[in-house]
Design goal:
Elements lengths: L2 H4 L14 H6 L1 H4 L5 H11 L2 E8 L5 H11 L5 H9 L3 E16 L2 E9 L17 E6 L3 E11 L4 E8 L10 E3 L22 E3 L5 E7 L7 E9 L11 E3 L11 E3 L5 E5 L6 E5 H14 L9 E5 L5 H10 L7 E6 L4 H4 L7 E2 L1 E2 L2 E2 L8
Parallel strand pairs: 7-8
Antiparallel strand pairs: 1-2, 1-4, 2-3, 3-6, 4-5, 5-6, 9-10, 9-12, 10-11, 11-14, 12-13, 13-14, 15-16, 16-17, 18-19
C-alpha cells in the first residue's frame, strides 16, 4: 500500500465542511436505521460489491525520498516534521463510495470496474475538471486498499468509472433500469401497483416504494452503511431533470454508492443533499457506460429543450391538461425551448406536453425524445 494511504492522519481536510468522524458514528441516521430482517439480508447481499473511495490531489513524495531526507537532516529537524512536510503538498479531495459492475479475469488477476460520483475527481465541488496529480484509493472491507485508475467521467451527470485490480474476483451488482412513469389519472389511486417480474426489462418504481442506500463508512474496517426510506416525486433541489429522490439522509461517505430496490437490484447512484437523497437512475448510467466502452466517449444528446415529468407539475396545470386532453395521463412537459434549435423551428413551445416521438411513447424524461 502506498505511503499516502498510511499517512492519512496528516493529510489536510477536504473543502467539504462535513461532520466529524465521531459525530457520524453517533448519528445512527447516517449509518443505518431500523430495517426489517428481509431488507437487512438484501442489503448485506448487495454490500459485497460496495467499496470505499478516497481521492487526493497534488504532489506526494514516496517513502524512499522521505527516508533519505530524514537521514540527511535528522540533526536539525524532528522526525514527524519531515513526514508532514513530505505530504503537505497533497490534499484529500473526497471520501465516498462506489460499486463494482464488472470483474474480469485478465492474466490471472481480476480487473474490476466501479461506478461512482465524479465529485471524487473535482479539485473543488463547483469546478468541472479533474484535479491535478489526482490519486485514487479503492478500499474494500475490512480496509484493504488498492490503487484506482480513471476510465471515464461525465461532469454533467456527475458520474465516473474507476478500475482497480485484485487477486480475487468481486461479485458485480445486478443493475435494473427504472420505469418512473406515474399516471395523473385520479381514478387509478385505489389500484394496486403492477406485480414485480424479474424477467422484465424495467423496475416499476412507484410513489412510496422502499429503496435502500448503501455505502462504506470510512472507519478502520470500512463497514457497510445502509439507510432505507421511501421514493418520492418531490423536487430534489438540484439542476438535473433526470434525478429522482428518496426521503432519507445519507452520510457524505455514501456519495457515489448504489441505491437498490427491495430485491437487491441497483437502480441508481446516490448523491449527497442535506434534506434528502437525490439519485441518478441507472438507466442514464448504463447508457453512459455502454457508450463509453464502445467509443470511449459519451455525447450528451441535445434537442434544444428542457423537459420535466408531467406528474411533478402543479395541480392547476394538471387540471388544464386533463381538460384539454382528457385521454392523456403520462408524458413530459416542455419547460424551455432554445432559440435556433430544431425544437424551436418545429413549433414546440413551453408548456407543450410530449407523449410520442418517432412513433414511440414518451412517458418520462428517462425516455428523452
Amino acid at each position: 500500500m502506498n505511503l499516502h494511504y498510511a499517512m492519512r492522519e496528516w493529510v489536510k481536510a477536504n473543502p467539504w465542511n462535513r461532520e466529524s468522524r465521531e459525530d457520524m458514528k453517533r448519528n445512527s441516521k447516517l449509518l443505518s436505521n431500523n430495517l426489517s430482517y428481509d431488507l437487512k439480508m438484501v442489503a448485506l447481499k448487495a454490500s459485497v460489491s460496495v467499496v470505499g473511495i478516497v481521492s487526493y490531489s497534488g504532489k506526494f513524495h514516496n517513502f524512499p525520498f522521505v527516508l533519505k531526507c530524514i537521514l540527511h537532516v535528522s540533526m536539525y529537524f524532528n522526525f514527524w516534521s519531515i513526514i508532514f512536510n513530505s505530504i503537505q503538498d497533497e490534499r484529500e479531495i473526497l471520501e465516498g463510495s462506489g460499486f463494482v459492475i464488472e470483474s474480469l479475469n485478465i492474466d490471472g488477476k481480476f480487473c474490476n470496474t466501479i461506478l461512482t460520483t465524479a465529485s471524487i475527481l473535482r479539485p473543488e465541488p463547483h469546478i468541472n475538471s479533474v484535479a491535478n496529480g489526482i490519486k485514487i484509493a479503492v478500499i474494500q472491507s475490512p480496509g484493504i486498499a488498492c490503487d484506482g485508475d480513471i476510465i471515464g467521467y461525465d461532469f454533467h451527470y456527475n458520474i465516473a468509472a474507476i478500475k482497480f485490480r485484485t487477486r480475487m474476483s468481486i461479485s458485480p451488482v445486478r443493475l435494473r433500469d427504472v420505469d418512473d412513469s406515474i399516471s395523473i389519472d385520479p381514478n387509478l389511486l385505489d389500484e394496486k401497483p403492477p406485480e414485480y417480474h424479474p424477467q422484465t426489462f424495467k423496475f416499476n418504481l412507484t410513489l412510496g416504494d422502499t429503496v435502500l442506500a448503501l455505502g462504506r463508512n470510512h472507519d478502520k474496517e470500512y463497514t457497510v452503511m445502509v439507510v432505507g426510506g421511501k421514493f418520492s416525486i418531490e423536487y430534489t433541489g438540484l439542476d438535473c431533470k433526470e434525478l429522482l429522490r428518496a426521503e432519507f439522509i445519507i452520510s457524505r461517505y455514501g456519495i457515489g454508492g448504489p441505491i437498490i430496490n427491495c430485491y437487491g437490484e441497483v437502480i441508481g447512484i446516490n448523491f449527497y443533499h442535506p434534506y434528502c437523497t437525490p439519485f441518478l437512475p441507472i438507466n442514464i448510467v448504463s447508457r453512459w457506460w455502454d457508450e463509453l466502452k464502445k467509443s470511449r466517449q459519451y455525447l450528451l444528446p441535445w434537442h434544444g429543450i428542457k423537459l420535466s415529468n408531467l406528474y411533478v407539475e402543479s395541480a392547476r396545470y394538471l387540471e388544464f391538461v386533463r381538460q384539454k386532453f382528457p385521454n392523456i395521463f403520462k408524458g413530459v412537459v416542455v419547460r424551455e425551448v432554445s432559440s435556433k434549435s430544431t425544437a424551436y423551428y418545429t413549433g414546440i413551445v413551453p408548456t407543450d406536453v410530449i407523449v410520442e416521438c418517432d412513433g414511440k411513447c414518451v412517458e418520462t424524461v428517462l425516455e428523452d425524445p
